[in-house]
Design a protein that fits this description.
Keywords: ATP-binding, Cell cycle, Cell division, Cytoplasm, DNA replication, Mitosis, Nucleotide-binding, Nucleus, Phosphoprotein, Ubl conjugation
Structural class: alpha/beta
CATH superfamily of the largest domain: P-loop containing nucleotide triphosphate hydrolases
Oligomer: single chain
CATH class of the largest domain: Alpha Beta
Strand order of the largest sheet: 1-6-2-5-4-3
Bound molecules: adenosine-5'-triphosphate, magnesium ion
Radius of gyration: 24 Å
Distance between the termini: 42 Å
Helix content: 25-40%
Shape: globular
InterPro entries: AAA+_ATPase (IPR003593), ATPase_AAA_core (IPR003959), Cdc6/18 (IPR016314), Cdc6_C (IPR015163), Cdc6_ORC1-like_ATPase_lid (IPR054425), ORC1/CDC6 (IPR050311), P-loop_NTPase (IPR027417), WH-like_DNA-bd_sf (IPR036388)
Order of helices and strands: EHHHHHEHEHHEHEHHEHHHHHEHHEEHH
GO molecular function, one term: ATP binding
Number of strands: 9
Number of domains: 3
Number of helices: 20
Protein name: Cell division control protein
Main location: cytoplasm
C-alpha cells in the first residue's frame, strides 16, 4: 500500500465535487506570442520553508514526518512597494481557454481578455464557494474603455476650462456631476475586474519558478512535469497565462496546448480532445505513439486538472506518466487546488520516483498583498480616492482571514462600488458632494458575502493562514483530544467552533461555509474529509500529526491559548 502524506487512509478519489460545463467545450489554443527575457531561477529540491520554488515531490519515506505545508510557512514580506511587473495583458489578444464556470472579461463588466471569475457551484461543498453568489452580474451593461482623460461630458464643452464649476464637484450642475460620477464609477468597476490582470503583484517567486521550468525543461526539450497547486483566487491561472504570453516568441517552436479541464464532459474526453488538437488518431495508444515519435516538444497545460478524476485515477496516471515514456517529447503542467493531488491522490506516482512531478504551491494572499492588489487597480483607474483606504484595508483583512482569495477581494470591492453608485443615483439633484465608497459599503457587501461574522474578526499582519481556518484546526484538535475518535462529524466540529468564536468574540461562519473552509484545509493537506450527502455528517480528520499542527499554523500563541483553555463551554 503506498503511503500518503500523513499515513492517513488513502482517499481513493479526488475529493472535489465535479463542476460541469454548461458551455460548449472551449478549444485549446496553440500559443503564439511575444518575447520575454528573465533571469533563470534554479529549480531546487522541494523546500518546506518557502512556498514557491519548484521542487520534486517528496519521497514516500519523507511523508510520514510531514513538515508544515509550504503555504503555511512565513511568506516573504508582502509587497509594500512591489517591483514593477511587466504588464502581462496588453498583448494578450489570444484568448486563453476559460472555464465554463468563469465569466469572461466582458461579462465581468470589462473588456479585458481572459477573465476567470468563478461561478457558483451547486453545492456548498466547494472550497471556492463561501456563500457568495459570484454569478450575479457585476454591472448592468458593457463598459466603454475610454481612458478617463479622454472622456468628455457634453456639458463640459460648454463650460470654459478652468471654470470653478469643473474643478469643484459641489458646484457642478447636477447633470454634469451625475455624468462624471457615472464614468468614474464605471472606470473603477472596470479596474476591479477579476479577468486576466495587466500586472500581477506579489507573485514574483512563483512566476520565476514557472519561467525556470519553461526555460530549463520545455525549451531544452527535456520531458518533465510540473504540478501547480493553490486555493482558489491565488493567481495560478493568471500567472501561468501571463508567462505563456510573455514567452510566446521563445515558445514558438513548441507545440503548446492549454486545456481547461472543466470544459470536458468526462475525464476520458481529454484523450479525444488532445488527439483532435494534435491531429492524431488511435485513441490513447495513438496519443502515446505521437508523443514518443520524433517531433517538436509538446507543452500540455491542464488547468483545473482535478476534473480528470476517474475510477482508479487511470486518466491522471496515464497523463502524468506520458512525459516519462522512453523518447517522450511531452512537458506537462497541471494546475489544481489540492496541495497534494500528486502524492495523496496518485500514490502510484510515489512508487515511480522518476515520474514525480515538480511541485509549485501558491499560498493564499496575505492582507497586505490583497490590499496592494486592490490599490494597484485603483491607481490604474486613477481612482485611489474613490475607495477609502480604510475600506480597502478592511476588505483585505477580512478576505485574508477567510481564504486569501484575490478574486473574492476584488469582487467585494467592485460590489461596494456598485452599491455606492446605486446610492448616488438615488440622490436628489440638490444633494451634492463627490461620490465615495467607504467602509459602510464594504461592510455591507462583506456581510452579504460572508454574513455578519465578518464584523469583528481580525486578521494578523502578514497573515498567510486565514484566521477562520486556524480556528477550525484548533477546534478539531480540541475535539480529537477530548474524545476517542480521530474522526469528527462536521456538525460537531461546527458546534465547537461556533462556541469558540463566541468565546473569543470572533464572528463564526455557518455550517455550509465551515465545510468550504474544511475543504480549503484539505487542499492545504491539513484536513481530510469523508463526504456525506448530509453536510453535518461529513467526517473530518487531521491529515498531519498533532505535533505538526503548531508548525502548520505558525501561531503558537493562538494555538497554545485555545488548547490551554480546553473545549469552549
Ligand atoms: N497577483 C495578482 N495581481 C493582480 N490580480 C490578481 C493576482 N492574483 C489574482 N488576481 C486576480 O484574481 C483573478 C483570479 O486569479 P486566478 O484565476 O489566477 O486564480 P486561480 O488561482 O487560478 O484560481 P482557481 O483555483 O479558482 O482557478 C485574476 O484573474 C486576477 O484578476
Ligand atoms: Mg485557475
Amino acid at each position: 500500500m503506498p503511503r500518503t502524506r500523513s499515513q492517513a487512509p488513502v482517499q481513493p478519489t479526488i475529493p472535489f465535487p465535479r463542476r460541469r460545463s454548461c458551455r460548449s467545450a472551449l478549444q485549446p489554443k496553440t500559443l503564439q506570442s511575444s518575447n520575454a527575457t528573465e533571469a533563470k531561477p534554479p529549480i531546487s529540491p522541494r523546500r518546506t520553508d518557502r512556498p514557491s520554488p519548484l521542487s520534486p515531490v517528496r519521497g514516500a519515506a519523507t511523508q510520514s514526518r510531514l513538515p508544515s505545508p509550504p503555504s503555511l510557512l512565513p511568506r516573504r514580506p508582502a509587497a509594500q512597494n512591489p517591483p514593477p511587473t511587466p504588464p502581462c495583458s496588453p498583448n494578450q489578444q489570444a484568448r486563453l481557454p476559460l472555464s465554463p464556470r468563469k465569466r469572461t472579461g466582458d461579462d465581468n463588466g470589462c473588456n479585458v481578455p481572459c477573465s476567470p471569475p468563478k461561478l457558483n457551484r451547486p453545492s456548498l461543498a466547494s472550497p471556492r464557494k463561501l456563500g457568495f453568489d459570484e454569478n450575479q452580474p457585476a454591472s448592468s451593461g458593457p463598459l466603454k474603455l475610454t481612458p478617463p482623460c479622454q472622456r468628455r461630458s457634453p456639458h463640459r464643452q460648454e463650460t470654459p476650462p478652468g471654470s470653478p464649476v469643473l474643478n469643484n464637484p459641489e458646484k457642478k450642475p447636477p447633470a454634469v456631476r451625475l455624468f462624471a460620477d457615472k464614468s468614474r464609477f464605471q472606470s473603477v468597476k472596470q479596474a476591479l475586474h477579476t479577468a486576466m490582470p495587466e500586472r500581477l503583484l506579489s507573485r514574483e517567486e512563483e512566476q520565476a519558478s514557472i519561467r525556470s521550468f519553461l526555460q530549463d525543461k520545455v525549451l531544452q526539450n527535456v520531458p518533465a512535469s510540473l504540478y501547480i497547486s493553490g486555493a482558489p483566487g491565488t493567481g495560478k491561472t493568471a500567472c501561468l497565462n501571463c508567462i505563456l504570453q510573455e514567452m510566446k516568441a521563445e515558445l514558438a517552436a513548441v507545440k503548446t496546448l492549454v486545456v481547461n479541464c472543466m470544459t470536458l464532459r468526462s475525464s476520458h474526453a481529454i484523450f479525444r480532445l488532445l488527439a483532435q488538437q494534435l491531429k492524431t488518431s488511435g485513441g490513447q495508444s495513438g496519443l502515446q505513439r505521437f508523443l514518443t515519435a520524433p517531433g517538436p516538444t509538446v507543452l500540455l497545460v491542464l488547468d483545473e486538472m482535478d476534473q480528470l478524476d476517474s475510477k482508479a485515477q487511470d486518466v491522471l496516471y496515464t497523463i502524468f506518466e506520458w512525459p516519462y515514456l522512453p523518447r517522450s517529447r511531452l512537458c506537462l503542467i497541471g494546475i489544481a487546488n489540492a496541495l497534494d493531488l500528486t502524492d495523496r491522490i496518485l500514490p502510484r506516482l510515489q512508487a515511480q520516483p522518476h515520474c514525480r512531478p515538480l511541485l509549485l504551491h501558491f499560498p493564499p494572499y496575505s492582507r497586505q498583498e490583497l490590499a496592494t492588489i486592490i490599490q494597484d487597480r485603483l491607481l490604474k483607474a486613477s481612482a485611489e480616492g474613490m475607495l477609502d483606504s480604510s475600506a480597502v484595508q478592511f476588505c483585505a483583512r477580512k478576505v485574508s482571514a477567510v481564504s486569501g482569495d484575490a478574486r473574492k477581494a476584488l469582487d467585494i470591492c467592485r460590489r461596494a462600488v456598485e452599491a455606492a453608485e446605486a446610492a448616488e443615483r438615488q440622490k436628489t439633484s440638490n444633494q451634492s458632494g463627490e461620490a465615495k465608497v467607504g467602509l459602510p459599503q464594504v461592510v455591507r457587501v462583506l456581510s452579504e458575502v460572508y454574513g455578519d461574522r465578518m464584523a469583528s474578526q481580525s486578521g494578523a499582519e502578514g497573515e498567510s493562514f486565514p484566521l477562520q481556518q486556524k480556528l477550525l484546526v484548533c477546534c478539531l484538535l480540541l475535539v480529537i483530544r477530548s474524545g476517542k475518535s480521530r474522526e469528527v462529524h462536521l456538525g460537531k466540529l461546527h458546534e465547537v467552533y461556533s462556541r469558540l468564536c463566541s468565546q473569543r468574540q470572533v464572528s463564526a461562519v455557518g455550517q455550509g461555509e465551515c465545510l468550504a473552509l474544511c475543504e480549503l484545509l484539505e487542499s492545504r493537506g491539513i484536513f481530510a474529509l469523508k463526504k456525506n450527502k448530509e453536510a453535518r455528517l461529513t467526517k473530518v480528520f487531521l491529515k498531519i500529526e498533532e505535533k505538526d499542527v503548531e508548525n502548520a499554523l505558525k501561531d503558537r500563541t493562538l494555538l497554545g491559548s485555545i488548547l490551554a483553555a480546553g473545549l469552549p463551554s
